[in-house]
């Protein structure tokens, strides 16, 4: 059935054909069943994504040039799977070669959805912005404040649970004579955006308004000019250019709406904020058959009719929760239905909460479900305390890192106390709109232990001053091309943890790194999606720093020697984690001088080719994880120098064809993980010298390598991972 759904488009047809062959071969063969089922799950999971790609390409009038390469891989994959079905038991010698090829096919599909498609999406977003600007005329400066505005109706693939009656009622209200504006009001996470999208796709609405349906996500940062430009662009009309005043802009909008009449017009303004009444007034005109649908957490009584969307009833809530908490073919028999009922009731009928909580519990043991039920009883109290006119809004943005509701839960919990008494202070700054109390001469005394500051792309690098000497954890979220660490960090004498997160599309240049040398209590640093300055970790002394985590960062020469040796700048570092670093091709030799290092993890660094011989100098290293470093060719012979190593993980290192003879010198090695490694990997005879080795974790194919050794090493336990199919990476981007 899944394959049939994909038959109507180019890339979908190719993926669908592979899926059909995989399903058929999996039923008929015993060999490769684990690997084939993994590929089947990935393909089935991504069918909606592929459909959306094809639909968007058609709307954007874009071809499939970027996907030609993966389509060729998939076509070859079909041939490979068919060849696998022909392998017989007496062709046992051929099996490892085909196992490696299937692993490579799976890796190519994963890479396409994890790396290629996000890059294409980011590129298309930029192109759309340029195309909009190109239609503005030579007199325009091309600037759109706020988010990249579009008027396209959001896709609506299926009828969501519990909105059939609401859709009919909302449509009836909108179609009433004399009603020009309908405000769809509800707390965040109730489904306002979903219902508005369903309305736009309704057959009667489509028949009435035809091509004059405009859907604009207003949100907090979008301005009037950006919306008007998008409306002109959507109809293929030349944008007149900049205007001297808002009055000129409003007049031009009215002329535009009159020009596309007398056909009926529907303008949907999604996610309008409470303070936006004057903003709404600019869209109100006395034009026949001109209707406006506003979605908001507020009611705006001055603008006429209001439709209040209620949370889901218990039955619909239970249905929605189960659809998220259980996979299609998974048993829904939970031993304690009372726990399920508590969780569903704790979500208070909010569709977003039901889906998020359901997904988080999928596949978890019953103890986790019970814990979550207790947690929700507390969250529910916070939800109930929200004023419907104060609670934060919802915007439907594909790459949003957090939903406003989830963020507002934390903010609301923090806001229950005065600033002076808060243990957690969460600040969200749009552009340069800094809270007034921060700019006062007599700034309130801040005693919080955790501080989180989020800024957007319009925030200037001129930081305000905050005096918060008690802060122990500082989180900086931003979305600018360049980000400067604030000077007030110097005054945070108790700061132990610094987390810097960029939630934009591309890595951000991080500046003012030197000031961290003034923080004498800093123990942990986590950097996400940033470009680290050269010699960043050797230009300052971080004498008590114990842990560094670099996630999706451009590392470059961050550890290269500058004025200070790395062993002097990081004398007490004990753990370094590097994940998804695309520019890491050779491991920094300088890290090998950090002799107190106990844990080193290099995960999903797909371009890492080699490790230096100097790695053998890490004599205190206890854990070494080299996971999914798919281009890593070998382990250096000096690995035998890691005399305290107890855990070695080389899972998914596909190119390692043999372990070095010196691995037998790891006399403290207790666990070796080799899931997804080549089934042709050669194990040296010295492996039997590992007297402390208690457990080897591998898959069914790799287990074959160890069976002869098991006959000699009686105390060795072989743990075979079977069909552990986990697709969380498709929607979770943090480890």
From TrEMBL:
Residues 1-151 form the RPW8 domain. SUPFAM superfamilies: P-loop containing nucleoside triphosphate hydrolases, RNI-like. One of its GO terms (molecular function) is ADP binding. It comes from the Eukaryota. Gene3D superfamilies: Helical domain of apoptotic protease-activating factors, P-loop containing nucleotide triphosphate hydrolases, Ribonuclease Inhibitor. Pfam families: NB-ARC, RPW8. Keywords: Plant defense. One of its GO terms (biological process) is defense response. Belongs to the disease resistance NB-LRR family. This is RPW8 domain-containing protein.
């Amino acid at each position: 059935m899944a394959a049939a759904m994909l038959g109507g488009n180019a890339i979908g047809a190719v993926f669908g054909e592979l899926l059909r062959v995989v399903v058929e071969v999996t039923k008929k063969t015993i060999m490769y069943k684990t690997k084939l089922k993994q590929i089947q799950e990935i393909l089935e999971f991504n069918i909606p994504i592929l459909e959306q790609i094809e639909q968007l390409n058609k709307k954007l009038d874009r071809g499939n040039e970027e996907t030609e390469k993966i389509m060729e891989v998939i076509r070859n994959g079909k041939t490979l799977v068919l060849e696998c079905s022909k392998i017989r038991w007496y062709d046992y010698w051929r099996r490892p070669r085909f196992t490696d090829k299937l692993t490579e096919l799976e890796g190519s599909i994963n890479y396409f959805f994890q790396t290629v498609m996000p890059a294409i999406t980011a590129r298309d977003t930029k192109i759309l912005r340029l195309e909009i600007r190109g239609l503005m005329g030579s007199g325009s400066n091309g600037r759109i404040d706020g988010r990249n505005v579009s008027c396209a109706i959001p896709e609506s693939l299926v009828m969501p649970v519990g909105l059939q009656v609401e859709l009919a009622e909302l449509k009836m209200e909108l179609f009433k004579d004399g009603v020009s504006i309908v405000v769809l009001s509800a707390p965040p996470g109730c489904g306002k955006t979903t219902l508005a999208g369903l309305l736009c796709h309704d057959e009667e609405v489509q028949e009435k308004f035809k091509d004059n349906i405009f859907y604009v996500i207003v949100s907090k940062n979008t301005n009037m000019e950006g919306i008007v430009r998008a409306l002109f662009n959507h109809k293929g009309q030349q944008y007149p250019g900049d205007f001297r005043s808002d009055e000129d802009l409003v007049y031009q909008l009215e002329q535009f709406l009159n020009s596309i009449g007398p056909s009926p017009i529907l303008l949907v303004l999604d996610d309008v904020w409470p303070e936006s009444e004057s903003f709404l007034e600019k869209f109100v005109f006395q034009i026949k058959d001109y209707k406006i649908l506003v979605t908001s957490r507020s009611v705006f009584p001055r603008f006429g009719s209001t439709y209040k969307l209620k949370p889901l009833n218990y039955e619909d809530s239970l249905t929605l929760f189960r659809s998220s908490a259980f996979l299609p073919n998974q048993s829904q028999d939970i031993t304690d239905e009372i726990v399920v009922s508590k969780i569903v009731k704790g979500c208070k009928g909010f569709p977003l909460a039901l889906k998020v909580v359901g997904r988080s519990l999928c596949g978890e043991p019953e103890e986790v479900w019970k814990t979550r039920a207790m947690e929700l009883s507390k969250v529910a109290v916070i939800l109930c305390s929200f004023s419907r006119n104060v609670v934060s809004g919802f915007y439907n943005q594909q790459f949003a890192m957090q939903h406003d509701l989830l963020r507002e839960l934390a903010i609301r919990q923090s806001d229950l106390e005065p600033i002076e008494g808060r243990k957690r202070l969460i600040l969200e700054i749009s552009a340069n709109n800094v809270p007034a109390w921060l700019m006062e001469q007599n700034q309130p005394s801040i005693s919080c232990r955790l501080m989180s500051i989020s800024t957007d792309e319009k925030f200037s690098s001129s930081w305000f001053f905050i005096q918060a000497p008690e802060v122990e954890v500082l989180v900086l979220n931003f979305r600018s091309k360049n980000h400067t660490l604030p000077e007030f960090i110097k005054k945070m004498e108790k700061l132990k943890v610094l987390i810097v997160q960029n939630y934009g599309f591309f890595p951000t240049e991080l500046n003012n790194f030197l000031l961290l040398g003034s923080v004498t209590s800093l123990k942990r640093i986590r950097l996400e999606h940033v470009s680290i300055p050269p010699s960043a970790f050797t230009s300052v002394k971080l004498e008590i720093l114990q842990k560094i985590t670099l996630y999706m960062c451009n590392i470059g020469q961050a550890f290269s020697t500058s004025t200070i040796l790395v062993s002097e700048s990081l004398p007490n570092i004990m753990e370094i984690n590097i994940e998804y670093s695309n520019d890491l091709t050779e491991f920094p030799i300088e890290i090998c001088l950090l002799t107190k290092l106990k844990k080193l993890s290099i995960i999903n660094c797909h371009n890492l080719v080699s490790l230096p011989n100097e790695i053998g100098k890490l004599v205190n290293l206890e854990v070494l994880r080299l996971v999914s470093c798919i281009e890593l060719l070998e382990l250096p012979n000096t690995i035998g120098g890691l005399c305290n190593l107890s855990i070695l993980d080389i899972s998914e290192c596909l190119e390692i064809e043999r372990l070095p003879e010196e691995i037998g010198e790891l006399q403290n090695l207790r666990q070796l993980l080799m899931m997804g490694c080549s089934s042709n990997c050669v194990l040296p005879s010295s492996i039997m010298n590992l007297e402390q080795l208690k457990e080897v974790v591998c898959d069914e194919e790799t287990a074959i390598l160890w069976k002869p050794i098991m006959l000699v090493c009686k105390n060795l336990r072989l743990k075979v991972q079977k069909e552990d199919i986990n697709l969380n990476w498709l929607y979770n981007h943090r480890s």
